[in-house]
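HUMAN:
Just now I want nothing more than another pair of eyes on a protein record. I would be glad if you read both lines and explained how they fit together. I have put the entry right below:
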Amino acid sequence: VQLQASGGGLVQAGDSLRLSCSASARTFGTYNMGWFRQAPGKEREFVAAVGWRDYTATYADSVKGQFTIFRDDAKKTVYLQMNSLEPEDTAVYYCATSRGGLVSTARADFTSWGQGTQVTVSS
């Protein structure tokens, strides 16, 4: 599966951004989709994921109520709506796919990765 992430940029604290990730897979509708992020000098961390079966969304505690993940299977695209951005949200954001009936938050369960899109939030 090839993934193409886009939508990142430089914003001010309090602004919003919507990231998009389009996929090449004909069977996009059978993949769980996730977003991870990696800040400079830190490990890549889970942000959010949405399941293929019932569109169940799972979030990291740090973004609950702030970020929303959703998917459009007809467009083979997953989105991450990010509101009230803070400098701590600055990172490269990656989309990824996983398989299975349950939505995993573990990085190791995600097998295909996009190239990442930079999000920079200034104070």
